[in-house]
Amino acid sequence: MSDAGPLHSRRIVVTRPEAQSGPMVAGLQHLGAQVVPFPVVRIEPQKRVPGLDAALRNLPAYDWILFTSVNGVTIFWEHLQRCNLPAEAMREINIAAIGPATGDALRRRGAEVAYIPEVFVGEALGEGLPKVAGSRIMLPRAAESRSVLPDILRRRGGRVDEFHLYKAIQVYPDTEALAALRGKLDALTFTSPSTVRHFMQVMNSADLDPTALPGSPVVACIGPITAQAAQSAGLNPGVVAATHTIPGLIQALVAYFDWRGDGR
């Protein structure tokens, strides 16, 4: 941790799944923050994904495959391997990613990414994707995903096959983690609607009021969709990252505390 960093001594709660929180934790600590790990979800692959094996063996029938998360990329590739399909099978298909982190996960696996929207949300991916009318589109993603993306694609004339590869499972932090929330906090961070939803469930079961935590921590969201989920849950987002990525969220926190300027 850097004692001179712009987030020096800020106690920032990270609600991301533990297995995916490393880069965010490291980024915050590099800037001097005291990270409070508080994972409220874990990612669980679905044991059965109806129709997926047949679709994978018929990949050339698809014009596009759209990936909306790094988790989706990781689990999709596991299915490719299980079906004994080489990564080269993906090279004849147009691939789109919802944002740069998902795009990077695809490129690390040798895939070429044909399209990433300028704004990293489902609406922008659906509206901006080229050559949708008449195209057959594979959409591997989370079971609890919003319907907006396939709805837009179908409205534009695409034929969409959805495959629910994984789901976010509630995690209940232990007593030590809950005790950490009773100290003064500076920020609560949320990186998806599911982290908001499950955080609120944890607060309810622990009989804690998330709007009355010590220090009145600012609610910081990775983007507008997560911010909408926070508002619907009764929270008041004070930070919404303009760039909807983990680095963008960290930079938004730096800008917020610099603007607030309360002497730390």
Task: Provide a descriptive summary of the structure in words.
The protein is of the alpha/beta class. The protein folds into 2 domains: 11-40 and 171-260, Rossmann fold (3-Layer(aba) Sandwich); 46-168, Rossmann fold (3-Layer(aba) Sandwich), CATH 3.40.50.10090. 36% of the residues lie in helices and 20% in strands. The protein contains 10 helices and 10 strands. The strands form 2 sheets. Strands 2-1-8-9-10 form a 5-stranded parallel sheet, sandwiched between helices. A 5-stranded mixed sheet has the order 3-7-6-4-5. The model has no long low-confidence stretch (mean pLDDT 94).
Write the layout of secondary structure elements.
Elements (H helix, E strand, L loop, with lengths): L10 E4 L7 H9 L3 E4 L3 E5 L6 H5 L7 E4 L2 H13 L11 E4 L2 H9 L13 H7 L7 E7 L5 H8 L3 E12 L4 H6 L6 E4 L2 H13 L12 E4 L2 H9 L4 E4 L5 H15 L4
Parallel strand pairs: 1-2, 1-8, 4-5, 4-6, 6-7, 8-9, 9-10
Antiparallel strand pairs: 3-7
Helix pairs in contact: 3-4, 5-6, 8-9
